[in-house]
Amino acid sequence: MSENNGPAIHIEGIKRSYGHIEALRGVDMQVEKGTIFGLLGSNGAGKSTLIKVLVGSTRPSAGHVRVLGLDPFKDARKLRELLGYMPQAPALYEDLSARDNIHFFGASHRLPDLAGQVERVLTFTDLVARAGDAVSGFSGGMKQRVSLACALVHQPQVLFLDEPTAGVDPLLKEAFWEHFRQLASEGVTLFISTHLMDEALLCDKLAIMRAGTVLACDTPQNILLRGNSTVKIWRGQKLERETISQYPTQLPGLLQSYGLDPAITKLELDQDNLETIMLRLINDKPGAGQTVDAQV
Amino acid sequence: MATSVTLSQEQTGHTTLPAVARTLAVLKRVLKQLVRDRRFLALSIAAPLLIMYLLKIFFDSLGNFGPSRYIVPAGALIIHFLTYILCAIVLVRERTAQTLPRMLVNGYRRAEIILGYLAAYTILATIQTLIVLFELAWVFNLDYDLGKQLSIYLVNWLLAVISISLGIFLSNFSENEGQMLPTIPLVILPSVFLSGFLINVDKLPGWIEWLSRLTPLYYANTVLQSLIKPGGELSQEWPSLLGLLLYGIIVLVLATFTLKEQE
Description:
The complex is a heterodimer of chains A (296) and B (263). Chain A is an alpha/beta fold and 296 residues long. Chain A contains 10 helices and 12 strands.
């Protein structure tokens, strides 16, 4: 493991422009080691650009980045031994087999037993049965698995996954997340971008991005607490609605005001989901609703 | 999915792999891709054979032409053309498939990628050059002695390697295959007209004469024209041979430094 005792990832005031388009407008965040950090946002929010900056593939216009205490540009050679990267596109050699692809990306590192490690990641991603087949014949989900295996083969300490479950069926998505949890339990830091709300809730910490800015950065539970809850109270056929902003603590007070009215026939609680909270955050933050149309 | 396998994090102290090993990894991977693409391989071998045969029909139709002044350089032009095209598309394809940035993030360095590609395609070009020169000698009944034939092969082989480097270098300026295609006539047509193989460049305006130095075929043709003369030897045209070598080194260095590591 790295000798760095600080956070796995430290981002301070990162900006990046593509011509007149500002893909990142001053991003700050910190990711602790051995955690799963989610980057949630719609297309064009700046998620991929941020990941490219962190892996040293795109140079930022301003700001500072440290991954495991290292600069992704000045210490690129040292850092590349320690990080794994799964881009949004599969980025595989379609005419080669899954095994050949994994072996090639593993061959750039000095591994004591590369062949053995290739077999281990093939097993880990459940690809053994098709390991010798050309990737061109694989489904989208299988290509994603090969791509993940390529990112894992050298046992990185930090893993950057750019929308790893895009186009993946629910069953496979669940299996992917089992893998991610297992890796985090082994001390690997995972930095995952997604535009899927259900997936975002599985992260230890979450940053919501929009048009190159971070709207919120907290645990999913705390972000959910920012939402409102609507309590629906029926007295026979009559429906009354009460809105509370802090669901677990304000609910008893609200119910006390009703007493235990025997006329109350039904109670329902509607909580804001992550999507609603995200939309509210966008509306509350002037300028953040602007979409970056460029493919970044 | 199999979740019982644990990817142990105990072996993370791995040190940096030597550049030679990574270059060999690129070479092996590109060779594997070439071997798997049988159609590409078949076309790479069949195309020069067909072109040489068409050339034979063309020269035969000209009657008693004494074609050796043109035939050997024409062979060089075919080698230059085919090897340039062979490699011009490959790195663009890597860029569009995003495997190139992935390779770089994974720790492969620019020079290792370029040299790995060059080595792999040189193996193919070596075979292609041999086939072209064999067919040339056979269909045109060229009866040069072994030493001269080896010298001609060496010049053509060197030209092939340089053409591959040129293809890699120019592909660095293209984002996709569509942008790469217009560079093909831009490289090949000046090679035809400015190499001295059809027109004597000394008779062209001064600035065009200087422009001719930008095409590797100019140096190769100068050496070959001298070689095919009775008593011609490789050592007689050493400045052009040196020019060809220098051209190759410069293009290779440029190819390495123009390969973008970051956006």
